[in-house]
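Structure ticket #2291
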Amino acid sequence: MLFHITRSLEQAVEQKPMPDALGPPRTRLVLLAGHDTNLAGVAALLGLQWTLDAREDDTPPGTELAFELWLNDHGIYSVRVTVAIETLRQLREMPNLTLESPPAYEALSIPECSARHVDCSWQEFQKIADRPIDASDATTARPN
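Resolution: structure written out below.
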């Protein structure tokens, strides 16, 4: 999933078709649906962590992990990752979510990005997202 997200962002930066990107180059919104395990996997690959509604790294139904591509006044692209989840109260009471009554939301920092804020330069994001996964980094589940 992260591979397709990265290729789609790259296509938007380059403004030309890229293999494995989703949608045409000028697409302004790409929406992917996945399960909590998909979100947790993407978050783990980027080292993302959050605490919303007093829950750490929780991915209840309807969780949104958004990758935003920004272009500044100097023509430099950056990537911002955000997460939004319904609070436990919202899940129980099922109100209509609106701008006045939004879900819990947080802009996330990518730990390996040299910028110590939520925006990561496109070049750094691409390098982090495209790095090979070392099998020695994987943990194995052990029965209790």
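Closing remark: Residues 1 and 42 are 7 Å apart (CA to CA).
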